[in-house]
Amino acid sequence: MRIPFIGGNWKMNLSLNEAVEFVEEIKDKLPVASEVETAIAASPLFLESMIKHNAESPLKITAENCFYKNSGAYTGEVSPLALSEMGVGYVIVGHSERRRYFNETNDIINKKVHAVLNNRMIPIICCDETMGRVDNGDHFSWVVSQVTAAVQGVSEEDAAKIIIAYEPSWAIGTGHSASTAEAEEGCYLIRQTLADIYSDEVADQIRVLYGGSVTEKNIKSLMKENDIDGVLAGKASLSASEFVKLANFKM
Ligand code: PEP
């Protein structure tokens, strides 16, 4: 049984005060983690304060990115070891904005996946897809190549813990979500790819999320699909009341 995962990705938004207020506001309104896991990914500058104010809450405080080395002469980078020491449990890796604006390659993303796992955290690996690729008809092979590269060298035991998010770039921040059928098709493809790399048993344990303009309006139909185990929401996660509605999608 895969526990549904409802994640938010704030990107470079909100202030420190707003971040702490958000955590305080939602702490009594979330489902228990054994029924639905909830997570918010925020700026590394906010994480320590958020963790302090989150003591009684099931919310998983999550990082949006990290470097692939624990320490060294890497000015400005975020150490995965430091994140782990702070009590961060999940790290988003390979978001399409990191791939596009910061030139993150499949190789870099694979190194980050290993660094996160080596520090006993769980990577939320994002795979994107562009409209140009849909037009060319190679969007599915693009998704498969990203998944395959991201998990290269990851053991079966670790693979069972990871989370993968299918996030078509054309649906991110556009207000135009993929249809439920398109989202399921992408998530199914990712699970089949994982089954080919590992086994059906391992692929059945891995949570696959959909991300791209998820709101309280489309979450229920997305969550009814077989291969969609949760969502990663950007804009909708910036409002505490909206995030609470996403987290309580079963009600
Ligand atoms: C995202 O940034 O991962 C995302 C899915 O954003 P939005 O929900 O705003 O489309």
Automatic annotation (TrEMBL):
Q: Where does substrate bind?
A: 9-11, 173, 213
GO molecular function annotations of the record: triose-phosphate isomerase activity
**Localization (cell):** Cytoplasm
The pathway to which it is assigned is:
Carbohydrate degradation; glycolysis; D-glyceraldehyde 3-phosphate from glycerone phosphate: step 1/1; Carbohydrate biosynthesis; gluconeogenesis
Q: What is its main location?
A: cytoplasm
Stored InterPro entries? Aldolase_TIM (IPR013785), TIM_sf (IPR035990), TrioseP_Isoase_bac/euk (IPR022896), Triosephosphate_isomerase (IPR000652), Triosephosphate_isomerase_AS (IPR020861)
Give the catalysed reaction(s), semicolon-separated: D-glyceraldehyde 3-phosphate = dihydroxyacetone phosphate
Its Gene Ontology biological processes? gluconeogenesis; glyceraldehyde-3-phosphate biosynthetic process; glycerol catabolic process; glycolytic process
Alphabetical keyword list: Cytoplasm, Gluconeogenesis, Glycolysis, Isomerase
- Name of one Pfam family that matches: TIM
Keyword field contains Cytoplasm = yes
Q: Name one GO cellular component term.
A: cytosol
* Any coiled-coil regions, as ranges: none
Enzyme Commission code(s) on record: 5.3.1.1
Q: What CDD domains does this protein map onto?
A: TIM (cd00311)
What SUPFAM superfamilies does the record tag this protein with?
Answer: Triosephosphate isomerase (TIM) (SSF51351)
Entry annotation: catalytic residues: 95, 167
Please describe what this protein does.
Involved in the gluconeogenesis. Catalyzes stereospecifically the conversion of dihydroxyacetone phosphate (DHAP) to D-glyceraldehyde-3-phosphate (G3P).
* Family (UniProt): Belongs to the triosephosphate isomerase family.
The annotated subunit structure for this chain is: Homodimer.
**Protein name (Swiss-Prot/TrEMBL):** Triosephosphate isomerase
